[in-house]
């Protein structure tokens, strides 16, 4: 039962309305990723590690969020602003350990909150519910709560030294004795601290250890020294899987793809070979959508009811309307809007264009910066020439227009409603409504020409030249 002051958190767990500050640590260099890109900007299913963790803390119902980033990591700060505009960013000038990183957010801690959650930005699979479970012991008097798990391979993790339900210490692997290393309960990295004692604990943490770093994990022993309580909450390994290497990033991607495929199947999408379809966390499907094998969905794709995506398509930033057919072998780039019942066939690329209801581009076409009117027919090989080497220009194709095969539409250009463009035309000027435009050289026919050529050849003339 919720108390009178209680509320149900977004994670579905009832708790008192305690304020909570999440401190998200993202200042690491991520050396083991061997990448110029900061670790937390690497993506899983199209969403950065940082954005994932931020969305989890928001869902967990925290009241404020502070993000600790490294010096010069403007791209990390920008991603934080994009993902969670209300969060405060703090720069950790030198990377001197996890406790040192938490203290970079000291101004946020000093504002005073009931609970503090320290979350690592490289641990993206943590669930909002688990964060709520971790906070729960703080409400009943604990000063520190740590997340424990039993990994298949404990190498590299800190070990939890327990006495009954209480944690006595966390020993980093580099500092652990042989017997401590044999402990299978490890530190998942995420920690909850009671707001009233957090600063007093954090400021006592020193760097007397193998790495000469200020370890957040020392908070446990210090709390105990202050006669405070530290407890552990256990969780499955899947949730606290840290991403430190490209291999772990790929493993995490595989786990997330499995989840997204299942989510799509559960929502009624038909996937003949789900393991060959790659999705983004934000991919949206309507009812009765079919996706054939080998299709890749980039970010921001929405597929409406009854649409079919045939094999070997690549989609990003596209909205596919009801009953649309795409592919096989089609590419939809950002800014694509396909109206109801339209058809985009094989080897067709669409970018920043609206294709209205019932329009068709069935083969070998590039539609860029264009509007294709309803029921228009775009012949095979049609190209919108949208770029003049300096700027992009638009092509407007009217309703019911017919563009003959292998035409080049040199933008800016407008083709009126119901107009025809003769095959092989290079259209450089507007075509009025209902008109026919032909922009190609006339055909020349030379009757009997081949017969005359053969006759000359048979006379043994090597360089035969037939008179017209
Ligand atoms: C940490 C824990 C370890 C735990 C493991 C779980 C410590 C001392 N060790 O080890 O007990 O088992 O996580 O994954 O906490 N960071 C900063 N600034 C720093 C150092 C780190 O912002 O100066 C950030 C990193 O970006 C990262 C997080 O803190 O997001 C954790 O740091 P990392 O170096 O990955 O810690 P681990 O060695 O994995
Ligand atoms: Ca880590």
Which short descriptors sum up this protein?
binds uridine-diphosphate-N-acetylglucosamine; binds calcium ion; 468 residues; 38 strands; single chain; disordered N terminus; 29% strand; alpha/beta; 8-stranded parallel beta sheet; 14-stranded parallel beta sheet; 11 helices
How would you describe this protein?
The protein is an alpha/beta fold. It is built from 11 helices and 38 strands. The strands form 7 sheets. Strands 14, 15, 17, 18, 20, 21, 23, 24, 26, 28, 30, 33, 36 and 38 form a 14-stranded parallel sheet that branches. It has an 8-stranded parallel sheet with strand order 16-19-22-25-27-29-32-35, with no helix packed on it. Strand 10 (159-163) and strand 11 form a beta hairpin. It is elongated and about 110 Å long. Calcium ion binds next to loops.
Arithmetic mean pLDDT: 94
Determine Rg (CA atoms, Å). Answer: 31 Å
Globular, elongated, flat, extended or rod-shaped: what is the shape?
A: elongated
Low-confidence stretches: 1-9
Instruction: Supply the helix-strand structural class.
Output: alpha/beta
Percent strand equals 25-35%
Could you give a short account of the major beta sheet? 14 strands, parallel
Q: Please give the alpha-carbon distance between the first and last residues.
A: 100 Å
In DSSP terms (H or I, runs of 4 or more residues), the helix count works out at: 11
Helix content: 10-25%
Count of beta strands? 38
Ligand list: uridine-diphosphate-N-acetylglucosamine, calcium ion
